[in-house]
Amino acid sequence: MSYSLSPGGTAAAADLHAAQERQRLLAAELPRVREAATAWRNGLGGLLAALLGFGLIKGQSDVSQLAPSWAVWTGILLLAALIVGAGSALLLIRAANGSPSPARVSQLLPRSAADHLEAVNAGNALRWGIVLTLSCAALLVAAVGATWYGPGRSGSVLQVTTPTGSFCGTSSGISHGTLTVASAAGDVSVSLANVSAIRPLLQCPAPG
Amino acid sequence: MQSGSPVANHKLLPYVETTEDAYGEEAAKSFSVIELPHDTLLLRGPCPRCHATIEVPVVSTIFKSPRSLLDRLRPHPPKAVTTGKDHTEPMMCICTSEHPDRPGGRAGCGAYWTLTITSAPNVI
Fold it and tell me: What distance in Å separates residue B59's CA from the closest CA in chain A?
């Protein structure tokens, strides 16, 4: 884009006031962005801390108790929340404190122009930081909700009770009315007619 | 916004909020336009009254506070400044040279004028 300048006609007092207002706004723009970014950073940090505390105190704390597919999705949600949360934290810190990268001396701009460009960049970082923080919160809520309300892992071993005792192990199948269970002591076959109870368990009880 | 080194015989030029048509004509000839990111222009040249070099950013947006969702849905007036083909920009001297009688919190020598900025796409 090329630009050319021409006289704008007779200026009025309103033009002076507009120019003074523009200068006043530009001079205060960067401190205004920094102040807003600091307030948002602190507020959103508190929100996330409260959410994490609430999520960790209540509900199932062990993802391994969930059904395998739910546990995988909960892990994905937590990983996504971690990545998004880290990105949001970096953006909010960048908005509040600026970028640590040095500027090339050959590209230095007048203070007012440089401050305005930094204010625009910081404002963009602040907006994206807010969006990502809220996304992180939503992902955390989804992950915590999944651990609360997701189906538990079904029993992977069976405890079979018969009139002569009980044994525990993984089922190898039922054939001709006989249940075969692979227990720690070896395969045990028992007629279903003799089984008085079958309980699915997460793991076999310790012997003794 | 900064000024160049003050010229000795201009140091005593008093601050007076004044304008003349010649200010705009002189600035249109002597000012240069530098394009910056984010729809920002930098106008650089000597003040038509005190002749101190000034650099005036011309911006299309300015940060106020993060907009709420409702605010985003409201209609907004069209953006000013560089996106149109022609835009008239109010200008004033913002030098930091010494000018007697300048009120506190003000900059420059008091001169103000208007400039029309015309943009055209580069033809390759």
Answer: 8
